[in-house]
Amino acid sequence: MQDTEAQPHLKRTLGLPSVLLFGLAYMAPLIVYGTYGVLAKASDDTAALAYLLALIAIAFTALSYGKLARLYPVAGSAYTYTRKTFNAHLGFMIGWATLLDYFFLPMVIWLIGAAYLNAAFPTVPTWIWIVSFIVLTSALNIVGIELAARFNIVLMVVQLAIVALFVALCWHYAAAAAGPGGIAMAEPFFKAHVPLSSTMAGAAIAAYSYLGFDAVSTLTEETIDPKKNMPRAILLIALIGGAIFVVASYTMQLAHPGVDFKDTDSAAFEVAKTIGGDIFVSVFLAGLILAQFASGISAQASVGRLLYAMGRDEILPKRIFGFIHPRFKTPAINIAIAGIVGLIALKLDVATSTSFINFGAFLAFTAVNVCVIRIYLSGNHGDRRMGVIGGLLFPLIGAIADLWRLVSLEKTALVLGAIWFALGLVYLCWITRLFRQPPPEVVI
Fold first, then answer.
1. Which one of 14, 37, 249, 269 is CB 3.0 to 4.6 Å from 48, fit for a cystine?
2. Is residue 247 part of a domain?
3. Residue 189 gets which letter from DSSP?
4. CA-to-CA separations, 419 to 96, 100, 203, 415, in angstroms, rounded
5. What region holds the Amino acid permease/ SLC12A domain (predicted)?
6. Per-residue DSSP letters for 46-72?
């Protein structure tokens, strides 16, 4: 395969606002409420601090992504950067780890949506909602449904409006409950009896909400002046998204201290009913399900596209994964496979599933930081020389933080992630004839 730079470039039409919109829409701000109960329980009621610690680590990684996007102004990812900075074999393994996110992200989205619908309609079994999500999104993706940019704008406006209303109602409820003594404003951040290990365990789960801040790196070839706009966009997406997550979880903790919920997986549903009554619950649920449904369509479509690219480039069996439906012109088999994999959600909870996909994310994030360190030490800094702070200190902090969050994942997630990584290593040995030749390059 030819190197990425040798391929025809895409048309550059996206400015900084458009790239920001794409990244924020991919992150889906309402997801903070979808995982709140799980995060609050894992962090021992320090969810706001967990989100803040996750943001700090993500910010250092975002800076590294920005440096690599400036150095390699082509459609990129952790896979591309590792391949170019180190070698094709290591790049493949990072790509394999990243595939874990893509492959199982739809499952988590469907699981969260099903948990909240089950809370609203408890007489309907959760499995019915999960299967319904899978069947509907798979059908739409197979026939070639596309989400235009204008729908992203509408979706973002709806989500941000609901988040703002939720925050305001939480604050009003907390103020009324506090009475003359006032709100204990520092309480969500500082709890002397909670060990740091609990908060870090929560931060590992909180990172799930940030997934997608780096997705805009794949738009580099379509971005105007990418060497300037892409680094800015990646950092701003992480900071803006993180601010939303911290504020939302902070006010939730003020309104509902503690982790006593009827159902941890749908805790925000319970809080919404407490602070806003049935009317707000209906608005919140509609917005959350809309966001989850749209995210599910997008995530499953991304899986289908990635698997197709791997099949087309003969990394995976071409006859299956390189198949395009003759009528709909979509990777129908891959979309169906993603739907079948989503059925695993019937046997998992939100905490385990989010931790599982975070395994791949943390490995990818660590690799990006290490790539910057490698480039700094090599002296090949491109047209803008890196200083010791930006080229060594910041990425080192980012790498350590990402590794810390990796080992803070629950044991089941670590075991499943290690198995996935081992399978990738075995497959790499096979397709490269025991590393005697480079693996094929994925061109998306």
1. 249
2. yes
3. T
4. 12, 11, 23, 6
5. 31-369
6. -HHHHHHHHHHHHHHHHHHHHHHHHHS
Provide the token pair at 100: 């874990």
User: End-to-end alpha-carbon separation of the chain, Å?
Assistant: 12
Structure-token match 């794409």, residue found? 22
How many whole angstroms from its chain centre is CA 166? 22
Mean pLDDT of the chain: 83
Residue whose tokens read 């009475």: 179
Quick check: 365 pLDDT over 70?
yes
Please state the separation of Cα 119 from the chain's center in Å.
24
For the chain, how many structural domains are there in total?
1
pLDDT digits (tens, 9 = 90+) for 93-109: 988 888 887 788 888 88
- Structure token pair of residue 224: 């105007």
Look at residue 76 in the predicted model and tell me its pLDDT. 57
**CA dist 112 → 105, 127, 135, 296, 345 (Å):** 11, 12, 16, 11, 10
Regarding predicted confidence, which is higher, 151 or 394? 394
Q: Determine the structural domain holding residue 156 and report its residue range.
A: 4-431
Residue 441 lies in a domain: no
The rounded percent of the chain whose pLDDT value lies above 70 is 90
Give the pLDDT confidence score for residue 61 in this predicted structure: 92
In a domain, 282, yes or no: yes
pLDDT band at residue 182 using 50, 70 and 90 as cut-offs = low
Q: Is residue 436 part of a domain?
A: no
Strand partners, 14: 223
C-alpha–C-alpha distance, residues 267 and 33, integer Å = 8
How much is the pLDDT for 14?
72
Look up the pTM and report it: 0.80
Query: What SS3 class is residue 25?
Result: helix
pLDDT in the model for residue 9:
43
Helix residue ranges per DSSP H, 313-331: 318-321
d(CA 257, CA 194): 14
> Can you tell me the distance from the alpha carbon of 60 to that of 54, in angstroms, rounded to the nearest whole number?
10
Q: What is the CATH number of the domain that holds 152?
A: 1.20.1740.10
The pLDDT of residue 148 is above 60:
no
Residue type (1 letter), 35: T
